[in-house]
Design goal:
The protein is mainly alpha-helical. The protein has helices spanning about 1-20, 25-50, 55-65, 70, 80-85, 90-100, 125-130, 135-160, 170-195, 195-215, 225-250, 255-280, 285-310, 320-325, 330-335. α7 (about 125-130) packs across α8 (about 135-160) and α10 packs antiparallel against α13.
């Protein structure tokens, strides 16, 4: 049940925020959302370090989770969602509430563009659309694999730090600091290189530094090549998490975004289950095998991203699956319509 709650909360808050965020601020909004994960993990590590009784630690975390529910009472629904379902009055009401907050004049009803072709679909009809629109199916399947792989890496390391350092709290703490660095790095990379190139660099970095972790070399009395490689690779893994959320949301049409994000997040949960078991291969096989598996999968991810995914940088969010078939960059539209 806890895993279900995390899945819904993480996926839901991201979809909600992306549908409110304009194109120029999506990357920053994504970074702010992503950095809450390592900060929360650091807080959890501190709680576990100070509170030795696991029941008290779980109780504290549960109270924090309940308190997080309070702001949701005041959060409005996405106007993009209402517009897609042709609920003009509700969408306009939320937009005017936002306009009043920023002290802007209210929007006239005719300024709201409604999707006249949209209709409410149940989940079975949405699933059928994957076969009607093969581009959406191709994107979604590969994105699900990417989520699975990134989650496999992340939780494999998260449950395996005790095998890479003597003090699990120190190892986890350094990993959290690496994730904070990762969010900053991904913010800069996405801004300069775009979504697709960033994902390719992330997977390449994962492959390279897992490969370095295979080397049996002691750098100092405290650090080994394995520890350094794993601390650096967690930066790329966390950057992958940050980027894949933004990338998936931008590639998914509004009509199916909730379903696609849920499918991707669901496969990520599967990866999070399997990752710790792969780390347990340490007890039966040489660590070179484990790191080699992770590194090889990372390189395959880079190749797959290059060939199977389009770059969503500067592209408006698609509203329906038919928009995916021929996306058009906003810069090109601006050139065609200088007004």
């Amino acid at each position: 049940m806890q895993g279900l709650g995390v899945l819904v909360a993480m996926t839901g808050r991201f979809i909600w925020s992306m549908e409110f965020t304009p194109l120029r601020l999506r990357n920053i909004s994504n970074a702010l959302l992503s950095i809450t994960w390592p900060l929360g993990t650091c807080t959890l590590i501190l709680i576990c370090y100070l509170v030795f009784n696991w029941k008290y630690a779980v109780g504290i975390v549960s109270i924090v989770g309940l308190l997080c529910y309070i702001p949701l009472i005041f959060c409005p629904e996405s106007p993009r969602y209402f517009a897609f379902h042709r609920k003009e009055k509700e969408a306009l009401e939320i937009l005017n509430r936002m306009a009043r907050f920023y002290k802007n004049p209210p929007l006239p009803a005719e300024s709201l563009e409604m999707d006249q072709t949209s209709k409410k679909q149940n989940i079975l009809k949405q699933l059928k659309d994957f076969f009607v629109f093969p581009a959406m199916l191709r994107r979604t399947v590969f994105l699900m694999l990417c989520w699975f792989v990134v989650s496999l890496f992340y939780y494999g390391l998260s449950f395996g730090w005790h095998k890479m350092g003597k003090n699990i709290f120190a190892s986890q703490g350094f990993a959290c600091l690496s994730e904070v660095v990762a969010v900053t790095v991904s913010l800069a990379l996405i801004s300069q290189a775009g979504r697709k190139k960033t994902m390719i660099m992330v997977f390449l970095g994962i492959g390279i530094f897992f490969g370095i972790s295979i080397i049996d070399h002691r750098i100092s009395s405290t650090w080994t090549a394995q520890q350094v490689g794993c601390l650096i690779v967690i930066i790329f893994i966390a950057a992958g998490f940050s980027t894949i959320y933004l990338y998936t949301a931008e590639l998914s049409p509004t009509s199916h975004r909730g379903l696609i994000m849920s499918l991707c997040s669901g496969t990520a949960r599967v990866g999070s289950f399997i990752g710790p078991y792969i780390i347990h291969l340490y007890d039966y096989l040489d660590r070179e095998v484990v790191m080699g598996i992770f590194g090889g999968v990372g390189l395959l991810g880079a190749i797959g991203t290059f060939f199977l995914l389009e770059d969503s940088t500067g592209v408006d969010i698609p509203e329906t699956p038919s928009d995916i078939q021929g996306t058009k960059r906003l810069e090109e539209e601006d050139e065609e319509d200088p007004e």
